[in-house]
Write a structure and sequence with these properties.
- The complex is a heterodimer of chains A (102) and B (223).
- With 102 residues, chain A is mostly beta strands.
- Chain A is built from two helices and five strands; from the N terminus they run ββαβαββ.
- Chain A has a five-stranded antiparallel β-sheet.
- By secondary structure, chain B is mostly helical.
- Chain B is built from eleven helices and four strands.
- Classes of the chains: A mainly beta (102), B mainly alpha (223).
- At the A-B interface, strand 2 and strand 4 of A face helix 9 and strand 3 of B.
Chain lengths: 102, 223
């Protein structure tokens, strides 16, 4: 069975969903609602949000590394405007940035 | 007189032999003195069941713990020293650390480890803000500070201040790249080879590579 191709390619701007579901999720709060850029596709890994509750059939999900300008994460960031934080984020937490070319 | 941290504050002479023999210091708690948490009990129960059912033996369990405890930053240091002396290996290590490490007979473990290279323009730093993810197969068990809330929340928020506290003053023109290991990757830093190490052997170079430089809170120095 072929799987759908990853939705995003490296260099694409993406926004992290601003959702706060209960339970075990691996998307840090500090990047929710923030916009970054896909650094690379890490591959497919079983969804930790299902795995954490003993679901051994957890769906493989595309995992990305997304880079954020530190100044976009923290408005009062004290370092350089070139500083970045790169975070591993699953596809179902990401949406395209509206207004960007598809 | 010097009191150990957390010691008592009452005043009397401990130097002589006329100390009241009934005087007792509070003993340092043993591991078993703290109440068992639910998950500890569960882990003990599952371990007993697995051994009882012959899935593995007590000795298998012990040997595995010994193996994990034996992992140490010297393993990561060997990879760095090879990358410093062999350009082809450096490229392979950055592209696929598992395959490159296998060339030296090193197992990077079941979780992919990404090697991030420090350059004149960029300094890399690793944190796991959600828990304590760490490249154990190349670095061993993480230091306590790596697991602390203080490091975890501040490494992403004010990395330059954190680095300065570790004695690493970064040039303002060098960009910081913080890697938050939030999911299924682990990270090791490939530091820059220090100046003044031109004549050193690979083994001597490996000796310069410290655990903290592989996490990115410091950089290796020549001697």
């Amino acid at each position: 069975m072929s799987r759908p191709a990853p939705l995003f390619t490296p260099g694409t701007r993406v926004r992290v969903h601003e959702r706060f579901p209960p339970g075990h999720v691996r998307t840090p709060w500090y990047c929710r609602g923030k916009t970054g850029e896909v650094e690379r596709i890490c591959g497919r890994f079983r969804n930790p949000e299902q795995l954490a509750y003993g679901n051994r059939e957890a769906t493989p999900e595309v995992l990305y590394r997304v880079g954020f300008a530190s100044t976009s994460l923290w408005p009062d960031y004290g370092g350089s405007k070139h500083d970045r934080v790169e975070i591993e984020i699953y596809e179902h937490w990401l949406e395209p940035v509206s207004g960007d070319p598809a | 007189m010097n009191e150990p941290a957390g010691g008592h504050s009452h005043e009397h002479d401990h130097g002589g032999y006329d100390v009241d023999p009934t005087h007792r210091h509070p003993p340092q708690p043993d591991l078993e003195d703290t109440p068992l948490a639910r998950h500890q009990v569960m882990q003990m129960a599952v371990t007993s069941l697995l051994i009882e059912k012959g899935i593995f033996s007590g000795d298998d369990m012990r040997a595995q713990v010994e193996r994990m405890d034996g992992l140490n930053p010297g393993i990561g240091a060997r990879l760095v020293a090879r990358a410093w002396t062999d350009e082809g290996f450096r490229q392979r290590l950055l592209a696929d650390s598992r395959a490159a490490a296998a060339e030296l007979g090193i197992d990077t473990g079941p979780i992919p480890i990404l090697v991030m290279e420090n350059t004149p323009e960029t300094h890399n730093l690793v944190v796991c803000t959600l828990c304590s993810c760490y490249p154990k197969f190349l670095l061993g068990v993480p230091p306590d500070w790596y697991k602390s809330r203080n490091y975890r929340r501040r490494a992403v928020r004010e990395p330059r201040t954190v680095l300065a506290e570790f004695g690493t003053e970064l040039d303002p023109n060098v960009a910081v790249r913080v890697h938050d290991s939030t999911a299924d990757m682990r990270y090791m830093i490939l530091p820059a080879r220090p100046a003044g190490t031109e004549g050193m052997s690979e083994e001597e170079l490996a000796g310069l590579v410290t655990r903290d430089s592989l996490i990115g809170v410091t950089v290796p120095r020549a001697g």
